[in-house]
Amino acid sequence: MLSVTTTSTRDVTSLDGLWRFAIDSRAGDEPWTARLDTPLEAAVPASYNDLFTDPEIRDHVGITWYQRQVRIPRGWVGQRTVLRFGSVTHAAKVYADDRLVAEHTGGYTPFEADLTGVVEPGAEFRLTVAVDNRLTAETIPPGTVSVGQDGREKQSYLHDFYNYAGIARSVRLYSTPPRFIEDITVTTEVDGSAGLVDYRVDAGEGAVRVRAVDESGAVVAEAEGAQGSFRIEDVELWRPGAAYLYDLVVELVDGGEVVDAYTQQFGVRTVEVRGAQFLINGEPFYFTGFGKHEDTVVRGKGHDQAHLVHDFQLMQWCGANSFRTAHYPYDEEVLDFADRHGIVVIDETAAVGLNLGVQGGLTGIGPQPTFSPETFGDATRAAHEQHLRELVARDKNHPSVVMWCIANEPASNEDGAREYFEPLVKLTRELDPTRPLTYAAVMFAHAGNDQIADLFDVLAINRYYGWYVFTGDLAAAEDVLEQDLRGWAQRFGKPVMMTEYGADTQPGLHSVWDAPWSEEYQSDFLAMNHRVFDRIPEFVGEHVWNFADFATGPGIHRVDGNKKGVFTRDRKPKSAAFALRRRWTGLDGRKPGQND
């Protein structure tokens, strides 16, 4: 799926701003058929939960309504008119005046509505969006909806971050010619000092011609045909920390005239797993960085350009070279920014919570099998498959994306896990055979009982020894962690990395002892983990959980959210941020202790 951008044949107009807003119980019958009768306005992009002081809105389960007036530019006569949503959490129905024009399920991938012939250029229409925040066994991520004694729906879910909802990413209206370029796929290899580029263009009737343009504006290669390849001599590689991007200018031509044009940026780089090494451009790469969240005060999961810039600045200040999009695909602009600035990305699906053992551990509810027709079965996997298709279609051309993570902390130790995941691994490799695959393993899964690790290329491990287990006893935690990680490396002989390790920390709390929640304990906890990592030859990376504190649902084990960030929610550093800066600065993708 192509990103929305202005070209010589395409125009874009933003629909971001303030929209009329109401929860379903206050919106009346068939609210898409008339002007929404409400005094409230909601910002787009933003989650709606924290915008208002009314607890009924914040805690609402079900449908909310957004509405605004839209005018199609009069200059778009004879063009296609397309409405694009970056995301709607978690499902949407879109109406142009009284007409349903699009439906989509999945809160973190884009979707479109073709309005050609529905609304004419120069005309105005009423745009209404029904936003449904409910999670079920047939959504990714999953959840459960029940009805309380007061008759209201209640939502429960298995992930440890707040279920923000709304129109969290930009809404745009764009035009294309009637015959247009539908999609572009670019893959790259390296041959000595040259770059080898394969491309495929899905387009309407007409001839296709392409040219590659470097950052100085010089044409470095040309080709014809909807599918082909070309060679870039003396290529500038896209490297971690040193991004270089080319433009692939694609033109759809008829009778010598350009019918449609689109420019797709790409970087020439290779990614490979060889033995127990993770290689970028044939060189061993060591991940340093974070699990993150799209989470800011007031906006919730709403995309914010200022936070985008500042967060990347803070990551680079720490010496981080990478991050994981925990636990869902981030806004497209985040990956565009990573492409331009040489930050490596592990791109993760929204499949978090496929583990009923976690629920039992936190609530005392008796164990249920995670994978079964009554829990997470064929319908869940079908939603997961669709999410994977949409994720790969959106992000396949980003050089910053070096690996797909297809689930976070699934019950990979339970019977049924292999039957659930094997088709998903097969599908992802068919969708993109160029990138390695991983999943993040939960603490219940270890090298002796995990049933799916052999299907993947990299072993991504989440561990909290010294926090949830052996709390305050870092000596015992260090011994057990080393045994655990060595077990994975010895059994599977694959690269091992830590995708989560961290300790909740209250900023300003200090202690001379190993006191959990203190800033000193967080730094000591990380240092203990790092000593273990440095002793394991197969180890290829460390992603601290978390970059910044973030909002969670209510729970007695969470006070004002998850406090495992090395930065506060408003991006102030804790002591651990300085400790990471000392460890990571100057590594440039090399493993600590191997800098010569």
Automatic annotation (TrEMBL):
InterPro entries: Beta-gal/glucu_dom_sf, Galactose-bd-like_sf, GH, Glyco_hydro_2, Glyco_hydro_2_cat, Glyco_hydro_2_CS, Glyco_hydro_2_N, Ig-like_fold
Presence of keyword Hydrolase: yes
Pfam (any one): Glyco_hydro_2_C
GO term, biological process aspect, one: glucuronoside catabolic process
The keyword Hydrolase is annotated on this UniProt entry: yes
GO molecular function terms noted in the UniProt entry: beta-glucuronidase activity; carbohydrate binding
Annotated keywords: Glycosidase, Hydrolase
Domain of life: Bacteria
All copies of domain Glycoside hydrolase family 2 catalytic, residue ranges: 271-586
EC nos: 3.2.1.31
Gene3D superfamilies: Galactose-binding domain-like (2.60.120.260), Glycosidases (3.20.20.80), Immunoglobulins (2.60.40.10)
Catalytic class of the enzyme: hydrolase
The family this protein is said to belong to: Belongs to the glycosyl hydrolase 2 family.
Name of the protein in question: Beta-glucuronidase
